[in-house]
Amino acid sequence: MGEITKDMTAASLAAFSTNRKQLAVQRAVVKNGIQEAAENVQAHVENVPVFSIDLTTGKVANQKQSGRCWMFAALNTFRHKLLNDFQLKEFELSQSYTFFWDKYEKSNYFYENILATAKDEVTSRKVAFLLQVPQQDGGQWDMIVSIFQKYGVVPQYVMPESASSSNSKVLNSQLNKKLRKDAITLRQLVAEGKDDATIQAAKETMLQEVYNFLSISLGTPPETFDFEYRDEAGDYHIDRELTPHTFYEKFVGVDLDNYVSIINAPTADKPFNKSYTVEMLGNVVGGKEVKYLNVDMTTFKQLAIAQLEQGETVWFGCDVGQSSTRDTGVMATDVFDYNDVFDIDFTMTKAQRLDFGESLMTHAMVLTGVDLVDGQSTKWKVENSWGEEVGTKGFFVASDAWMDEYTYQIVVRKDFLTEEQLAAFNEQPTVLAPWDPMGALA
C-alpha cells in the first residue's frame, strides 16, 4: 500500500497555490458553499414550468418528516381520479391508515424472513441484511398494491395524521428495536427444535404487541365510517356505513392488477425486455409479488407519455437528490456544474452509478405533465409530496436529460404494452439479490 509522503503533499500545495483560477473559485466556495457556487442559472431558464400536457391534480400533499413518498404518490394518483370523477375541490386519502397496515405487515414479513434464515449464521449476509433495517417507511409500488388490496383505503379525515406518522423517526427506532429482540427469540426457538405451532404462537404474540404499539402511536384503523362531502357545485352527498374496501370499490375503482412496474436499469446483469423480482423484498406475506419489466429509456418514456396523453398521471421512482434544487424544484443534469468548480470530471454512466453504489431509487413522485416538441419530450411536470413551500407550489420540473439519468421506475397500464412486452413481463422473473439497487425502497 502506497502512503502519502510529505513531498507529495508539498507538491499538491504548490500546484494549488499557484493556480489563480482555483484560488478565485476557492474564495467563492468558502464564502457561499459548494452547491451555491456551482448552481447554473441557465438550467432554471431552460426548465420553466410550462407543459404541452398538464393534467389537473389539485394541491400537493406533504409527507412531512417521514419516508412515505411511495405511499403518498400512489394515493395521489387515486386522489387525482376522485377530484375529477366526483367534482371535488380538494381531497386527500389517509396516508396514516396505509402507514399503519404497512408497518404491521412489514413486521410479519420480517418475522417470516428471520424464520426462513434461522439456521444461517447471524453474520451471514442475508441475516445481517435483515437485521440492519428490520423495517422502514419506504416501499415499492407492488407493496402498496398489496396493502390496498388487503385493507382498502379511507378518506384522510377518517384516520388523520398523528405526531408519529408525520415524524416517524422515534416510531421506527422503537419498532426496529422490538423486531431485533423478537428475532433473537425466534432464532432461539428454531435452535431448540420447537415445532411450527409453538413458533407461530410466539410470533402471533409478537404481532399483537406490534398492533398495540402501532395503535398507541398512530391510532386504531377504522372498520366502518360515513363519507360525506360537497362537490364543486355545492351539492351535498353522504354514504353511510362504508368499509375501507367498499369505499375503494365505489370511489376509487381502479383495477390494480391492470398496472405493471417498468424499470430502466441499463446494467450488464439485467438485459432489457426481461422481468425481474428481488429476494426478500415485500411487506404482505401472500401479497403481490414485486415484479418489474426492464426496458430501454426510449421505450420507458414513451410508455409514460402514452398514459399522460390518456389523461392519467404516472407513479414513478427516481434518485431525487441528484442534480436537483429543493427550493426552486428544478431537476436537471446541468443545474450544478461541479466539474468546472473543482476541475474534476465526476461523470459516470447510469449503469456505472448503479453498479458502484453512486445512485439508486430514493424517492417516488407523480408525473402529471410533459412538454412535447415535435413529438419528443423536453421536460416533465412532477408532483412532489413535500408541501407547497418548495418548487412551484410543490410541483417540480425535470429536464428530459435528468429523466434519462436518474429515473428508474414507472407504473403504467398493461394496455400500453405491446404483446411482446406483456409476454416478457409475464415470464418467470429473474430473482435479484436482496441488496440489488433495484430493490431500493422509495
Distance between the termini: 39 Å
| Principal-axis shape | globular
As a percent range, the share of helical residues equals 40-55%
- Please state roughly what percent of the residues sit in beta strands, choosing from under 5%, 5-15%, 15-25%, 25-35%, 35-45% or over 45%: 15-25%
Number of helices: 17
Based on CA atoms alone, the radius of gyration comes out at 24 Å
* Main sheet overview: 12 strands, mixed
User: Which secondary-structure class do the elements indicate?
Assistant: alpha+beta
Instruction: Tell me, rounded to a whole number, the average pLDDT.
Output: 97
Number of strands: 14
Give the low-confidence spans: none
Written account of the structure:
With 442 residues, this protein is of the alpha+beta class. 43% of the residues lie in helices and 16% in strands. The protein is built from 17 helices and 14 strands. A hairpin with a 2-residue loop joins strand 10 (363-373) and strand 11 (376-383). Helix 6 crosses helix 8 (141-151). The longest helix is centred in the middle third of the chain and has 23 residues, at 169-191. The protein is globular. The protein starts with 5 loop residues before the first helix and ends in a 10-residue tail after the last strand.
